[in-house]
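Lab notebook page, bench 4
Experiment: in silico fold of construct C2
Operator: M.H.
Input chain length: 137 residues
Purpose: comparison with the prior construct
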Amino acid sequence: MASKMASCIFCKIIKGEIPCFKLVETEKSLAFLDINPLSRGHALVIPKFHGEKLTDIPDDHLTDILPIAKKLVKATGAEEYNILQNNGPGAHQVVGHVHFHMIPKPNPQEGLGIGWPQQKTDMDQLKALFEEIKSKV
């Protein structure tokens, strides 16, 4: 993991080795403008703890992520927006360090575009899935 951290662009930003447009910083988190924004005000909120996926981050290092994202929404004046967090390349994660996007959606052309491929199910399948997941939570 040390070598992944050493080469991680977000870890370098946290350490101040790479500059960023820092918006909010706490003991456990950092928020900054995305350098490849989907819309005006697109920002990232990251835990300072290095982990590739959400399940790699201890709960106590996630406590201020959503409150920071909420502050950014208010600061940008976004009335419509997405909070997005991807895990793994197949889920569109590019940087291997957990990060949350706050993406204003000012109009149909800017911001996040989403496909929502809903799947058909029936109540028996849904009940079985519910019981399986519920037993593991």
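Observations: The first strand starts at residue 22 and ends at 25. Strands lie at 22-25, 29-33, 43-47, 81-84, 100-104.
Next step: discuss at group meeting.
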